[in-house]
Amino acid sequence: MRSDASFPWTTCLSTYVAEGMETSSAVVEPFTPHQQVVTTFELLRQSSDSAIKKLAEDMQRYMVGRSDTKKLVLQTWLKNYVSPSTIFHILSPEYSVKTIVELFRKFHSLEALASRMLAYISDPLTVIKVAEMTPTGYWRIFLSHGFNNGRLIEKWYKYATMYIENNAESGLKISDVVKLISMTPHQKQTLKTFEENAAVAAHTNQMQREGPPAQKKLRTDS
Fold first, then answer.
1. If we measure between CA atoms, which residue out of 64, 47, 45 comes closest to residue 56?
2. With bands split at pLDDT 50, 70 and 90, how would you rate the model's confidence at 216?
3. Please, are residues 122 and 151 in contact by the beta-carbon 8 Å criterion?
4. CA-CA distance, 174 to 165, in Å (whole number)?
5. I need a surface site. Which of 82, 86, 90, 200 has the fewest CB within 10 A?
């Protein structure tokens, strides 16, 4: 970006913020020209005016795509405890889920923000209205972040099962999805356990619907 002097509108925006909005203590720090612009738009994003809010979000999305302001925007979001759902709303659909994942994987110095964001994106029970969120898409995000704990794999398995049941036309099967990717031994064992548990649960439900053997015989005789 050019120097602050060549951006007269930043002075106007800063004046607007100073006069019309309360500055958060989380973002008060010595300003560089780039930081001033980033901070100003974060403050504008908190406006109750929907037009100003949209302008600020559009500008933040633009700055995330620039090498000289990308990290500053992420740092500002971290300091202000901006929620993963808000960040995802700002970045998508212009940024694909894969691109957002890669963005947050790169910034190890912002581990708290990256962990929250990746956990949000890779949770199948989070409502993300994008076509990429097939079981395969979710699983690849799990692997990209090194997820191997049972709770998240269980969520993926439940989501994949639900997705396949509700999208029969996709032709997907759990076994087909799993074949597409390589898993660690721990992931394989965890997934096998959930598959076995699901099979047992399905059998138990079937038995409960049919009733005890004596009741089955009575129903047959009648």
1. 45
2. low
3. no
4. 10
5. 200
- 8 A C-beta contact, residue 68 and residue 34: yes
**Predicted model pTM:** 0.53
174 near 161, Cβ under 8 Å?
yes
**C-alpha pair distances (Å), 134 with each of 102, 173, 210, 217:** 18, 12, 34, 44
What is the average pLDDT value for the chain, to the nearest integer?
Answer: 72
Alpha-carbon distance of 189 to 194, in angstroms, equals 9
Closest CA to 107 of 149, 143, 64, 142: 64
**Residues in the chain, total:** 222
Tokens 């106007």 belong to residue = 12
Compute the distance between CA of residue 222 and CA of residue 213 in angstroms, rounded to an integer. 14
The residue written with tokens 């962990």 in the block is 115
In the chain, domain spans: 122-222
Report how far residue 31's alpha carbon sits from residue 6's, in angstroms, rounded to the nearest whole number. Answer: 16
Task: Provide the 8-state DSSP code for 5.
Answer: G
Q: Are 142 and 103 in contact (CB under 8 A)?
A: no
**pLDDT higher than 80, residue 90:** yes
160 in Cβ contact with 124 (< 8 Å): yes
- Distance CA(10)–CA(12), nearest Å, equals 5
Residues 6+ apart with CB under 8 A from 81: 26
Which residue type occupies 103? L
Residue pair 88/54 in contact (Cβ under 8 Å)? The answer is no
